[in-house]
Design goal:
The structure is a single chain. It is built from 9 helices and 8 strands. It is α/β, with parallel strands linked by helices. The protein has an 8-stranded parallel β-barrel, surrounded by 6 helices. Helix 3 runs parallel beside helix 5, helix 5 packs across helix 6 (131-143) and helix 6 (131-143) packs across helix 7. The radius of gyration is 16 Å and the shape is globular. Its EC number is 4.1.2.4.
């Protein structure tokens, strides 16, 4: 079992609801600082945002569908970096994975990678893929220079993170990339299961409740 402080430093404290206001984001930042999370993850339109020292800023690109042109994702990523984002979570074009168009998927990720000097996380929407597609998507992310693979947006009707997907992703990247579990993690038990399966980062909106269950 990971302790409260260790888990907190694995959390991207997340607010991606489209109706979130500037006041909501300010509250998120304040809560993240109080909880000791690694970062806040917010929509790119909410950037720039002021955070206390030690708290990192993440945002999303091509979110939540992933079904936009790679050049648009790269532009969005570059703008987010200019606006202060240190980490970019990009959604892949899921159709490329479903169709097995791996060279195109690699090219898409590489185009965003070129626009991001900091950490790049690749959201593969694992609940919408079969095991072979999850494995090949992770391989494409690694081949394109990503730093993390990430399970889910949390917005797809197929669902969010699963222990099976996290384990499969962790086995595929073999510690060479981080693994972010995100989407539907609402209890400390679920968070611990993801960590045990190989998650090195957690995307959580229920951070306070989850950390409140830990000692």
């Amino acid at each position: 079992m990971s302790d409260k402080t260790t888990v907190a430093r694995m959390i991207d404290h997340t607010l991606l609801k489209p109706e979130a206001t500037a006041a909501d984001v300010a509250e998120l930042v304040s809560e993240a600082a109080r909880l000791g999370t690694y970062s806040v993850c917010i929509s790119p339109s909410q950037l720039p945002v002021s955070v206390p020292e030690g708290l990192h800023i993440a945002t999303v690109v091509g979110f939540p569908s992933g079904a936009v042109h790679p050049s648009v994702k790269a532009f969005e990523a570059a703008q987010a970096v200019r606006d202060g984002a240190e980490e970019i979570d990009m959604v892949i074009n899921i159709a490329l994975a479903k169709d097995g168009r791996w060279s195109e998927l690699e090219a898409e990720i590489a185009e965003v990678r070129a626009a991001v000097p900091g950490v790049l996380k690749v959201i593969i929407e694992s609940a919408a893929l079969n095991d072979d597609q999850i494995i090949e998507s992770c391989r494409a992310a690694e081949a394109s220079g990503a730093d993390f693979v990430k399970t889910s947006t949390g917005f797809h009707p197929a669902g969010g993170a699963s222990v099976h997907a996290v384990s499969l992703m962790a086995q595929t990247v073999g510690g060479r990339l981080g693994v972010k579990a995100s989407g539907g993690i609402r209890t400390a038990e679920a968070a611990q299961e993801m960590i045990k399966a190989g998650a090195t980062r957690l995307g959580l909106s229920a951070s306070a409740a989850i950390l409140g269950e830990l000692s």
